[in-house]
Write a structure and sequence with these properties.
It contains no helices and 16 strands. It is mostly beta strands. A hairpin with a 4-residue loop joins β7 and β8. The chain is rod-shaped and about 120 Å long. The termini are far apart.
Length: about 190
């Protein structure tokens, strides 16, 4: 089986190796527990591709009796992309936005997180870290997306979320004595 062992993949190929051909024998395999059989008309090997988990039974048959048969369970095929993928803002400053990618992959697991602040025009690969901080930003709003890819390459992209840098409030002040009053001196108190 390729890929072999306990490895997750989008598909797997099982190579059935039959013994040398003998006349009067039928070389077959079944993918549905023996309900139906596919005949291998020539050669001693047959590649069968699996795109979902399943079983294969290979046999040599003389029309009445089985000469030999063997079966194999094919597992760890993942064609399901990550689920519940979304982006959320966890912090911001006047020049940065910190984004958290949220999502799950119940089969092969999450392989990488990617982040975009320009609605998916360009992506930043953040490896297996689900939080990323965009820095050196201008004040304003950005169209943020996240993309989560599982370990076999299935990917899901979030909806666009508008996120803004933190705006800087203007300082305020009060003057004592206030208004249009003449005085020997006035005190201005600035509130930042």
């Amino acid at each position: 089986i390729e890929p072999s062992g306990d490895v997750w993949a989008r598909s797997k190929t099982v190579t059935v190796h039959y013994p040398e051909r003998q006349s009067g024998f039928i070389y077959q395999y079944s993918l549905n527990g023996g309900s139906s059989w596919t005949t291998v008309s020539s050669g001693t090997t047959k590649d069968v591709e699996f795109t979902s988990n399943g079983n294969i039974i290979a046999r040599i048959y003389d029309g009445t009796n089985y000469y030999t048969a063997s079966s194999f369970a094919v597992t760890k095929i993942d064609r399901t992309p990550p689920e519940y993928v979304s982006a959320s803002k966890t912090a911001s400053t006047t020049k940065s936005i910190t984004v958290k990618a949220n999502g799950y992959d119940y089969e092969s697991g999450i392989g990488k997180y990617e982040f975009s602040k320009d609605n998916g025009s360009s992506w930043i690969d953040n490896g297996t870290n689900s939080t990323y901080t965009f820095t050196n930003l201008s004040s304003g709003s950005y169209q943020v997306k996240v993309r989560i890819t599982d370990k076999v390459g299935n990917a899901t992209t979030s909806n666009t979320v508008s996120m803004s840098t933190t705006s800087v409030p203007l300082p305020t002040y009060i003057i004592e004595p206030s208004g249009d009053v003449w005085a020997r001196s006035k005190t201005v108190t600035v509130h930042y």
